[in-house]
Each structure stands twice: as structure tokens, then as C-alpha cells.
Amino acid sequence: MTGVEKPVVPEVVGTAVGLTIRITDDCQMTFQSGFAEDETDAVVNARLDRLQAFAARQHALANIPLKQNAKRDLLKQIMQYEADRTHVETDLVDANTSLDQQVLLLREKADETLRAGENEYRKSGRVGPYKPRGPVAANLERIEQQIQSTIEGRGKNEAERDKALQDIEAAIEHRRKHLAIVEAELADFYAKAGVTPPDDDPPEA
Q1: Which three-class secondary structure state does DSSP give residue 50?
Q2: Taking a C-beta distance cutoff of 8 angstroms, is the pair 92, 157 a contact?
Q3: Which end of the chain is more exposed for a tag (fewer CB within 10 A), N or C?
Q4: Side-chain half-sphere of 64: how many Cα atoms within 13 Å?
Q5: CA atoms within 13 A on the CB side of 30
Q6: Is residue 1 scored above 60 in pLDDT?
């Protein structure tokens, strides 16, 4: 042999790696990498973990505005239900006030009916205590039934108010639980993205 012999270099086969990771429902990111066959598992895993970390940060950055919007929507819904709660109470007061006025008018009508009957009784020359009879008694009975039905309407109104408030409280509680989940997810995304929440981030409820 003449000259200097070239050292024997072992053949190293490379392996290509492609990672496609979902960032959002309508966005995904693809990473291309590779490693030689003689690289250790620790080196390869470290490289893949680094790619996963890049993807996780992009996933967090992309989802922060989505979670912010979800949080704003939930806060608006809670505020609306709280306003509805006030309206339910106000509506009950208005409805019962209207019923009270109806009862007063009916009692006035009963008094007028009674007076008219007694006047007719006196005009006929009768003396002694007056006791409604005939059409007058029937009219008074009908008015009294209307009064009792109107009074019962207060109880119905209050029952409807209680049911409406129960439904509102259940809706608020459901959204507060959902809001707690969204806030936890949002905090996790901020941490993974390595960013500080902005001052205009929706406040907690």
C-alpha cells in the first residue's frame, strides 16, 4: 500500500422526523427534524421534547384570546342573569301592586252594591236590619269570589317569582363553575406562553 490509508468511517443512517401538532381547531403546526442512528435516546428525546415545548407555547399563545373571549362571554351572561334577578323582584312588586288595586276596586264595588240594595230596601218602606237577598246577594257573592281569586293571584305570583329565581341562581352557578374552569385554563396558557396577563384581561367575577 502506498500513501496514507484513510480511516474507516462507520456508516451512519439518518432518520427524518415530522411532527404535526394541533394548535387550535383550525390551525396546526408541522415540525421537521431528524437524528442519526448513532445518537443516544437521551439526545433524540431531548430534541423531540424541545419541539413539543415550542408547539406547546404556540398552542398557548393561540388559545389565550379564545379563552379571553369565553371568559368575557361568561361574565356578560352572569351580569345579565343578575339583572334578570332584579327584574323578577321588581315585576313581582308591580304585579302584586296591580292586584292590590284590583282588590280595592272590587271592595268598593261590593260596598256600592250593598248600599244600592239597602237604599232600595229603605225606599220600599221596610224597617229593621238590612240583609242582602236575591240579585244583590248574588252580585255580592260573585264580587267576593273575584276578590278571593285576585288575592290568590298574589300567591301564584310569588310562587312564579320563587321558581324564576331558582332557575336564575342555577344558571348563574353553572356559569360560575364554567368560568372557574376557563380561568384555570387561561392561567395555564399564560404560564406556558411565558407571558404576563395584560391589564385589560377580563376581571374575575
Answers
A1: helix
A2: yes
A3: N
A4: 18
A5: 3
A6: no
Q: For 42-77, write each residue's pLDDT tens digit.
A: 988 898 888 888 888 999 999 999 999 999 999 999
Does pLDDT of 111 surpass 60? yes
DSSP 3-state of 167 = helix
CA gap 120, 135 in Å, rounded: 12
Rounded to whole angstroms, the Cα distance separating 42 from 184 reads 33
Helix axes 41-123, 134-193, angle to 10 degrees: 170
Any idea what DSSP says for residue 133? -
SS3 for 97-130, per residue? Answer: HHHHHHHHHHHHHHHHHHHHHHHHHHHCCCCCCC
Q: Where are the beta strands (DSSP E) in 5-53?
A: 14-24, 27-36
3-class secondary-structure state, position 186? helix
Task: Tell me the average pLDDT across 2-31.
Answer: 71
> What sections of the chain are H helices per DSSP?
41-123, 134-193
User: Largest Cα–Cα distance in the chain?
Assistant: 159
Predicted TM-score of the model (pTM): 0.68
How many Cβ atoms are within 10 Å of 162's Cβ, its own excluded?
12
